[in-house]
Structure formats: structure tokens, C-alpha cells
Amino acid sequence: MEGDGSDSLVTIRNIERELICPACKELFTHPLILPCQHSICHKCVKELLLTVDDSFNDVGSDNSNQSSPRLRLPSPSVDKIDRISRPGWKRNSLTPRTTTFPCPGCEHDVDLGERGISGLFRNFTLETIVERYRQAARAATAIMCDLCKPPPQESTKSCLDCSASYCNECFKIYHPWGTVKAQHEYVGPTTNFRPKILMCPEHETERINMYCELCRRPVCHLCKLGGNHSNHRVTTMSSAYKTLKEKLSKDIDYLIGKESQVKSQISELNLLMKETECNGERAKEEAITHFEKLFEVLEERKSSVLKAIDASKKLRLDKFQTQMEEYQGLLENSGLVGYAQEVLKETDQSCFVQTAKQLHLRIQKATESLKSFRPAAQTSFEDYVVNTSKQTELLGELSFFSSGVDVPEINEEESRVYNNALISWHHPEKDKADSYVLEYRKINRDEEMLSWNETEVCGTSKMISELDNNCNYAFRVRAYKGSICSPCSRELILHTPPAPVFSFLFDEKCGYNNEHLLLNLKRDRVESRAGFNLLLSADRIQVGYYTSLDYIIGDTGITKGKHFWAFRVEPYSYLVKVGVASSDKLQEWLRSPRDAVSPRYEQDSGHDSGSEDASFDSSQPFTLVTIGMKKFFIPKSPTSSNEPENRVLPMPTTIGIFLDYDKGKVGFYDMDHMKCLYERQVDCSHTMYPAFALMGSGGIQLEEPITAKYLEYQKDM
Questions:
Q1: Angle between helical axes of 259-328 and 335-343 (0-180°, round to 10)
Q2: Is residue 430 predicted with pLDDT exceeding 60?
Q3: I need a labelling partner for 82 at 20 to 30 A (CA). Which of 103, 141, 247, 412 fits?
């Protein structure tokens, strides 16, 4: 028996790899079973949910303090943990629910549903094995009595009903004969206590007695009668236990019977590892040899080019030196002038004439050169600039032979950047690639070459997060088949928004006119239903200003920081106004009776009081621009051309708004090119809200944030 105990310790210690949590890389603590059947520590699930939640909050409003009466306030971390652990907890519909996160084991997204962590089963079997491993690892460490007065005695048994360990004396005291506690179940000393009966996490008063074959999880009879498993095939727990135990036993027996084959394959793998080591070193040596040859060619060309430049430089300097000496000779008492002065001293006429004729020609030539000064050589070396653009591009694409692996192509239409970047690509021979590597790097304004970041991808799209705002990023992708990779695709350059993305939905309460406007259930799309209602009220329409705009605002306000949000205006829209407005201005607009006067117009002023007309007061508490009939109208400005052809632009597919609350500035962007179309000052002394207005037929769709859930949806599509 002692030998069996020793073998048991060895077995327990050899399975440590199976007892490590894939998230924290430590032994499991209260492991939970995820919907994908992988286990993860209870605390790790909480941390993952908080990480996803915080990352979205950081992107959505990284530096804002939203303090409107209707605003959502960020909760402290402890409060978040309580909410996440609470059954039925949901995140506000403003963002994708934070019950979805990637499983650290398989990297697939898992959705915990409305019950969150409370809907997960504890893996008591795994927990028991981990406890046995801990005891084997600390064989000499005793478990002390929980009820002894200090100093505690070593425990001799643990009560599963009390979830406590006792020494002999304390056990007798707390479990006296003739009482209910005397019937408690006890085992040897342990720190792992689990309930005798497994209860349903969805129906906490019901015990588990069935097994859902479709979901592969235990359920209770209420789950089957009217719950999520009502249409699923279930079996009794005893039948599932018997079936699964038989299958597992057969599989284990099969593996044990193949032990010699496994050892043989392990030996073969060791040989393959050594062979791979040798071949890898040989491949490195060959690569070094090829690069050294390239270096030799470059050095040879470098030497030749530098010699040519030096030769040209010497020739030009010699010409300049000769020309400079000639000009120095024109100075008094030196060179040609000095010689001529000496000739003038000759008194013999015959001798003077004989010498002066040639001298006069030389002086005339020097005089003419003074009148039209021309350097003897060029100072520019433009003809000697080495053009390496083509060679640089070729060297940038330098890679291994593709061996039939085609180059993937990034899909520019499906790739975009918002709160995160979504990069999609297609591969001509999709089935031939095992995986892809997406590379990206930031492009600095001084064109400094930063190193590439790499991430391995199994599919043909990837979400990249934590990108800096207002920066250009380059993306490229290459395909892998086994150990062979294709050359990189052409680079795609995307510009990130100028500020963190601000998350909000349309407010269905404040000022929302459900007679004219139609809001979808997600509250991220609104349409203007012009027609019948307008006809019914046509008898009151005598002048233009009786036809009012229908306003709708965001459900979240801004009180500090920089923020950016984007949306699409439907091409069929007749008249839409978009921008920002302060809380007090909105109250003024929305209090105005619709059948009396439009909140957009002031009868006394005689003109439109919006920012696009004659009012250029920089202190106004709102800014709206007009969009309609597939056009974007630049508001009038005293500093720019007000000609119609200069103020009317094609309507961008996606429009972005950038609000710098602290500086009191708002800008309107073409999201496709991240180009600012219009910018002006705005009074931000009150809480500012995203504001929209529609007249006639029209529609506005808020841009959907890029999340892991969004990526999964795109794949399904």
C-alpha cells in the first residue's frame, strides 16, 4: 500500500500542467466552467470582465467627467466587482454588454449572458484534484484545527457539512452524540470543501438531476420544463455519468495501451527537435551569407558612387580656384592690373606698342567678365543624388521563397478605424494558408521608422486596440503555410480619430417626438417620418417658420476633455442638422411649443439664428451644420469665401464630430479621410450634448464601436 501511495504522489505531481489556470498561470483557485468547457479561476473571470469594461470606458470617455443629472457615472472597481458577480447584471445598453470576453484557453469569445458569473458551474472535480496536488506538494505541512484555542492542534478530520477541520477533541465537542451534527459527513483533513448536492445556478433552490446533451452541461428539471433547455435533448444524470465514465475509461485504457507507441513518438520528436535546431542554424548561416553578399554589392556601389562624387567635386573646385586667381589678378598692384601698371611705365613707343596690344585684349576680356559674372562650375550635385526608392521597396519585400503561398490583400473597404482598428483581408488561395501575421506601426510626423508590431491571426480579420489618437498607422499582412511565409501585402495607411471615441445613444425621453421620429430598439438609429402627420397639421401652416425641426440628442453629456463621435446620414435625407448644444440651450429649444414657432428660428431677428448664418458670435452655446440632398454645407464665415460653390461639398459617407470642451472648439470631419471640413469656437460653460435635428424624410445611424463582439458578427455575415 505504501508503494501505491508513492505512485499516487508521483502521478499527482506529474499533472501540474493540467492544473494551471490559462489566465493567471497559477494553480486553479475556485475554477469555473466556461460555456466553451474550459476552466478558469473565479477571480480571473472577474478581472477579465473588468479589463474589457475598463478598456471600453477608457476609449469611450478617457478623460471626461460626465456629470449631467441623466449621465452614467463610472463606478469604483469594488462596486464593479459586486455588480458583475450579481445575478442578472447587465451593462447599460450604451455599449456592448461586458459579459463577453475572450477565453484565455481557446481565445474564442464567450458570453456569460444576463446572469454573468452566477450562471457558471464551479468545477468541483478539478478543485479537488488541485487540493490533492497541493497536499502532495506540501506533504509535511499539516492542516490545523479551525476551532482550537491558540495554539491550534493538528486536525484529524474535516466536516463537509460544517466546512471546517477539527482535532479529535474539538470534533467531539462540536459533534456530540445524539444530535443532528453527529450525523454530519466527515473525511480526512482537507481545505477543499464542496457542497454535497450540486444546485442549479439559474434556479438556486433546485438540484441538478439531468444533463443537456446539446449544451453539454448539467441542468435541473425547471431548465427543461420552461428554461433555456426546453427544446434540447436531455438525459438523466445517472445515465450521463455512466456513459461519460465509460467513454473516459475506454479512452484512458487506450492511451495506457499505447504507452510504448507514445514513448517512441516522444523519441522521434526529440530527434526532430535536434534536426530542427541544426536546420535552423544552417538556414541562419545561409541567410547571413546572402545578406553579406548584398552588403558587398552595396559597399562596392557605395565606393564607386563616392569616388564619382569626389572626382566631380575636385574638378569643380579646380575650376573655381582658377577663376578666383584670375579675378584676384584684377585687383590693384596684383596680377594683370599690376603688370599693366608696369607696362604703362615704358617710355619707348615701339616697345610699348609691341607689348600693350596683347595686354589690352586681355584687359578687355577681363572687363567683359566683370559685366556678366558667371561661375566656372555648378555648386549643385543634383545629378549625383542616388535614387534608391525602387531598391528600398524591393528590399522591404525581401522574404523567403513563397513556395506557392500567395500574397494576401488587405480589403480597404472593410478595414476601418474608430475606437479600435479593424483590418480585414482576403487571400486568393484561402485554404492554402494555415495562419496570418498582421503587422502594424505608427508613422511619426518626422517620418521616423518605428519597429513593426506583430500579431498572429487564424482568420482573415483582426481588431487592433490601444492605438494613439490623431496618428497615422501602417498595416500589412503576410500568410503562413507551415514554416513558409508569403511576402507582405501592400501597406494600408489609416488615420486614427483626433480624440477618444465618445459613446452614447439617442435619448428617447428628453425632447423626443415619437410622432415624427422613429427610434430603433438599440437607440443607435433615428428616422424622420415626414408625410401624413404634416398633412394633418397643414391647415395651420401659413408661413415657412411654422414647419419645425425635430430635435433628438445624445443620452450622455460632456463636461470636460476631448471627445470624438461619428455617424452616417442616409443619402435620401432632405435636411439634417448635426453638432453640439449646451444643456441650457436645449432646454430653451425643447420648451418652445411646436405649433407656434420653430426652436431653430427667432421671429424678431428676421434671419436664421444658427451658426451657418450671419451670427458669428464665438460665445454661442451651440454649433450645428446642415446636411441634406447628398451635400455638406459649410456655414458662412467672415474670414472665408461665402460663395455657394465654395460652401457646398459632397456629403461624406461617415461624418465625425470632435469636441474639445476645455478649449471650447468643435470640428466636423470626413471620417473616410479623417479630414477636418469645418471648425469653430463654441461656448462650453454648460454641459454639452451631441445634438441632431431632422426635417422631412431622413435618417441618422450612429457609428458602431469596433469590439470583439462586432468582429464575430462580421465573420458571421
A1: 20
A2: no
A3: 103
The two counts, helices (H) then strands (E), for the chain are 15, 33
User: Which residues are CB-contacts of 493 (< 8 A; sequence separation ≥ 6)?
Assistant: 443, 472, 473, 474, 475
DSSP string, 95-115: SS-TTEEE-TTT--EEE--TT
DSSP labels for 374-407?
Answer: --SS----GGG----HHHHHHHHT-----TT-PP
Phi-psi map region of 40: left, alpha, beta (phi>0 left; psi -120 to 50 alpha): beta
> 460 by DSSP, 3-state: which?
coil
Question: Which residue shows C-alpha cell 460632456?
Answer: 558
Average pLDDT value for residue range 70-85: 37
Q: Residue 151: is the preceding peptide bond cis (ω within 30°)?
A: yes
Dmax of the chain from CA atoms?
159
| 95: pLDDT strictly greater than 80 | no
How is residue 354 written as a grid cell? 609691341
- For cell 428617447, name the residue: 508
DSSP 162-225: TTEEE-HHHHHHHS-TTSGGGG--EESS-S----SSPBPSSSTTSB--EEETTTTEEE-HHHHH
Total Cβ atoms within 10 A of residue 41:
20
Task: Tell me if the pTM is above 0.70.
Answer: no
- For residue 528, name the pLDDT band (cuts at 50, 70, 90): confident
Beta bridge partners of 694: 550, 576
pLDDT (mean) for 610-626:
63
Helix orientation angle between 259-328 and 237-257, rounded to the nearest 10 degrees:
80
Query: Looking at residue 11, what is its pLDDT?
Result: 55
3-class DSSP state of 57: helix
Instruction: Measure CA of the first residue to CA of the last residue in the chain; give whole Å.
Output: 61
**What percentage of the chain carries pLDDT values higher than 90?**
22
Q: What is the pLDDT of residue 347?
A: 81
Tell the burial category of 21 from Cβ atoms under 10 Å away from its Cβ (0-12, 13-18, 19+): buried
Distance CA 486, CA 433 (A): 9
Q: Which among 160, 140, 164 is positioned nearest to 152, based on CA atoms?
A: 164
Quote the crossing angle between the two packed helices 124-137 and 2-14, to the nearest 10°: 110
Lowest mean pLDDT, pick from 365-369, 414-418, 584-588: 365-369
Separation CA 78–CA 247 (nearest Å): 44
Give the span between the Cα atoms of 382 and 302, in whole angstroms: 17
Grid cell for residue 161? 457539512
More confident position, 543 or 194? 194
Long-range contacts of 266-272 (CB under 8 A, 24+ apart): none
Each residue's pLDDT tens digit, 198-233: 788 888 788 888 888 888 888 888 888 877 788 888
Q: How far is CA 510 from CA 506, 513, 589, 688, in A?
A: 10, 9, 11, 14
Q: Is 617 helix (H, G, I), strand (E, B) or coil?
A: coil
